[in-house]
Amino acid sequence: MNNAEQIDYWNGKVGDIWVLMQERMDRALTPVTAALLAAAAPQAGEAVLDIGCGAGETTLAAAMAVGEDGDAVGLDISAPLLARARERAEALLSQAEFIAADATHWDEVGDFDLIMSRFGVMFFADPEAAFRHFHSLAAPGGRLVFACWQPAARNLWATFPLTVLAGLLPDPASADPYAAGPFAFADAARVATLLEAAGWHDAAFHSLPFPMLIGSGEDPIADAVDFNLKIGPAARAVRDAGIGAEARPLLAAALNPYLADGDVQLPGAIWLVTARA
Fold first, then answer.
1. pTM exceeding the 0.85 threshold for the entire prediction
2. Rounded CA gap, 71 and 64, in Å?
3. Which domain holds residue 196?
């Protein structure tokens, strides 16, 4: 997808689904959020820009850390997710600001001490140009910290449902592994080259494997099936193929071995990337 297609996509049904799944996703990504914020270490009085902020979890945390003397701005292209973020900010009496904008063209005055993102930077049609623009928004020596997915093979939460349902889905078309999408930044060496070309220095990649919580509650298996049919690569494939009814029992049976202590978890792995302007 190009940026315009991404905007249409996230302002349609998918944006509404992610609003409904906001609490579930934040819970599933708790280890990622904790690691991201620890690496970013927003300080009192700093100016923070959160790219692809979604429903606001990381922006709200940054706003709390920087306090009244700082600024926390969240950018996103999805009106439904931004509406949810603003609701949460109002409930928390947070000063976080949420702006609808394509981050690659947002031209406000920069000087951000910290630019951060939880899975919001892998979807740009021209990632080098995007990172160059972000560099222009950073204060001298400003920090860049973001989380991106490692290769799909290390993220069973995403690949497992596709494997289970392979017999019901059309054969996947060969795709550019670097095309905008969840796993566009899986190749750390390529991302390091992009960052250097865009003017960022001292890029470092920290590997974080973690258990992705996809099912819990009274019926964790049903909850996990629901998660897989609403979030992730399989969700779109199932919607496009119209096989939701057939998919449910297959996924339920396949996920049962991953149920332990009332939760269903599948392996995930991210790169936690840091760099300086």
1. yes
2. 10
3. 3-152+176-212+267-276
